[in-house]
Amino acid sequence: MLVAFRCVCVWSVAKKKPVCIERKAHGVGEDQQPNWIVSVAARRYTDLIASGSCDGFVRFWKVADDYKSISNIFSFELVSLSSGFDEILLRFC
């Protein structure tokens, strides 16, 4: 059994399992526990993923051509939230 807790994963529909797992994708908090990921969005027909976390950051990830890795290409801190992470991520994607 694979537990993908506080990770960003790229899944294969054909294999029905993750082909890439980015553990502790949003780092760790003061208690040395991985930060919770509260939202994930992907842009159709692209290699772009966005994720939001309890650390207040939105991170953008690029999926490698072989789908076996992702790399953080950009991140920014949200100063305040008038709406949820999901709505913000969908606006970017």
From TrEMBL:
Q: Which UniProt keywords apply?
A: Nucleus, Repeat, WD repeat
Its annotated compartments are:
Nucleus
One annotated GO molecular function: U3 snoRNA binding
- Signal peptide positions on this chain: none
Superkingdom of origin: Eukaryota
Q: Would you name any one GO CC term?
A: small-subunit processome
The primary site where this protein sits is nucleus
Q: What is this protein called?
A: U3 small nucleolar RNA-interacting protein 2 (inferred by orthology to a human protein)
Organism, as annotated: Anisakis simplex
